[in-house]
Amino acid sequence: MGTVEKRDKHKKRRFVSPEEKLERELKDCISQMDEVVVKINHQNERYDALNKKLSEIETSKDDEGVRERLVKENQDKDALINSQQNELNKATELYTHYDKVESSVRERYEKVQKQQKKTAQKKTVTTKKAR
């Protein structure tokens, strides 16, 4: 059995067959499904963009972690270099001190050697005179 459809205020009512009504409902349903598919595709595009941003953020966090590790390694190496430089400075000071001590000991040794030679020569001269 058919139904009566009211088209507009100014137009007359017309009889609609069940097949036409079903066809129209089916077209409306397909149209709505098309709209839903468009909305789903739009949401998928938004989710893809969001995932891309999240990946970029994650990568930047990874990069930040790498940067922090490198900064820490650099600080550790700087501390090691400073420590080694301090040890080198102390060693240089010690070397300079020991070099001065060695020079002083050498000068004294040479003076003593000269004095011993002079004393030995005097004894030799004295011994020769005494004969």
Can you give a write-up of this model?
- This protein has one helix at 18-130, and strands at 3-5, 14-16.
- By secondary structure, it is mostly helical.
- A two-stranded antiparallel ribbon has the order 1-2.
- The chain starts with a strand and ends with a helix.
- The relative contact order is 0.03.
- The mean pLDDT is 87.
Topology readout:
Elements: E1 3-5, E2 14-16, H1 18-130
Antiparallel strand pairs: 1-2
State the low-pLDDT regions, or none.
none
Category by helix and strand content: mainly alpha
> What strand order characterises the main sheet?
1-2
Shape: rod-shaped
What count of helical segments does DSSP give?
Answer: 1
Question: How much beta, percentage-wise?
Answer: under 5%
Percent range of helical residues: over 70%
pLDDT averaged over residues: 87
First and last CA, distance? 170 Å
The H/E string reads EEH
Tell me the major beta sheet: 2 strands, antiparallel
Number of strands: 2
